[in-house]
Amino acid sequence: MAKEITSREQDYSQWYNDLVLKGELADYSAVRGCMVIRPYGFALWENMRDNLDRMFKETGHVNAYFPLFIPKSFLSKEAAHIEGFAKECAVVTHYRLKNDPNGGGVIVDPDAKLEEELIVRPTSETIIWNSYKDWIQSYRDLPLLINQWANVVRWEMRTRLFLRTAEFLWQEGHTAHATAEEAVAETVQMLDVYAKFVEEYMAIPVIKGVKTASERFAGAVDTYCIEALMQDGKALQAGTSHFLGQNFAKAFDVKFLNKENQQEYVWATSWGVSTRLVGALVMAHSDDDGLILPPRIAPLQVVIVPIYKGDDSRSVIDEKANKLTKELRAAGISVKFDNSDNRPGWKFAEYELKGVPVRIALGLRDIENNVAEIARRDTKEKKSVSLNGLSDTVRDLLEAIQQNMFNKAKAYQQMHVTKVSNWEEFKKTLEEKGGFISAHWDGTAETEEAIKEATKATIRCIPLNNEKEPGICVFSGKPSVQRVLFAQAY
RNA sequence: CGGGAGGUAGUUCAGCCCGGUAGAAUACCUGGUUUGGGACCAGGGGGUCGCAGGUUCGAAUCCUGUCCUCCCGACCA
Fold first, then answer.
1. Handedness of CA A362, A365, A370, A376 (dihedral sign)
2. Chain-wide mean pLDDT for chain A?
3. CA/C1' separation A107–B69 (Å)
4. Is the ipTM of this complex over 0.90?
5. Which of A465, A464, A409, A460 minimizes the C-alpha distance to A437?
6. How confident is the model at residue A431 (pLDDT cuts 50, 70, 90)?
7. Residue A29: which region, alpha, beta or left (left: phi > 0; alpha: psi -120 to 50)?
8. The pTM is what?
9. What pLDDT, on the 0 to 100 scale, is given for residue A7?
10. Which chain A residues 17-56 have CB under 7 A to strand B?
């Protein structure tokens, strides 16, 4: 049995890797645990990034940029924070190379040792709070609502393209507030922004919740998260928003003078999503024929494939296709007319691999009848449509695909939240069905750890607005006040 | 950091056991015929066999070391 599960996991790993590589999203790089994001994959990330950035600005945030390097001493100012990150930090110890006196290569110049080592940021709380200390004097300086788009490095033991890489791109918001209530409201607001983005743009339904103490961000008072379900039944943390209390304000001595002329520590939040979302997109929607990208963020929404028959047809079809391309672009749809020298069948397969939502095939026969064959990637349905008002037809279809992808993923998610009442059911469900398991938990870290030890499942979150429902813990049999969501996770 | 499998053409891999001229498929280039689901014919270019030592007349092949990749485990706010 264990063997079968292993091979199933391997199959999914292989499936996922193929999707990313053949879909031309990313490649492995020469650097351990890092990846090269290819133009197509980067265009996808840019679309995600631009939409998120707009949503951040609509909620009053501004962008800034802080340094890549963090003095070692900064990290040690917040005890829990260093505890959480110390094991995975890349450290800069020298600032110069020199020619190897014993050979042709270069060596690190031992004379160029840094007095204080620099840490390549695993996250930027410390370097940012060092600046905030100087920026915040009075309640008039608050709230401070700043986001940065950056790369961070976490030296993970084991990496997977997009889902966990040693270096990744992300955004991190860092805000400072006059009151705890305001900071909590900000934390929840940004969680809502993330949930809205992931559901409405990426077409992936999420469960909003709060982490247990053991899964909490290092240095946070509360960690809120959105959890998504992948097609192999594993959960993926798609975004987090942390209420940091006054931990970082105290560590970096950031005080403000309130209206009553009293010194107070500020209240903080931080929140982030990363290129991991691209991995989520791949895992949540793809099939055996390749990627399936949601229209709202697809780098390419429509591809037009000409079906030539002899050289005579070429100019007629090209002319018509160029006209349609122009028409669709004018309607705000991203289109590629692929008149390259490959055969139609090759192109069909190619754009399916890359997840282009809509394909239009155009041949002489179609033009004579004033129609085109339009195919949707999500369901693979094909039909003939009139060329009159094609941009409206395509726009409606793109919207329908977006909706259908979300509905399908939502139905899958709902089918995979299972309420269980005892330990046998818990194990059986996890093994045979996967997904989220809604179960009573006695609230202790010991039980959480024991369940993880036994099944690899962790508490993904305590859903927001969770019903209070007395019961007994599925593992320990002790009293419980509510159900929580367990799952195996990425 | 433990266990397993690998590193040979752009890619996927064969060759290795049993040492003796560097291979296939695919991709790429040229010409032609084609085009409604990954075309065909002909010709062509492309590799310090991961790296470093060793054994040998001779190493992709054997030995030692080392680096890297993938899978599993440990680790992973």
1. negative
2. 92
3. 25
4. no
5. A460
6. confident
7. beta
8. 0.95
9. 56
10. 17, 22, 28, 31-33
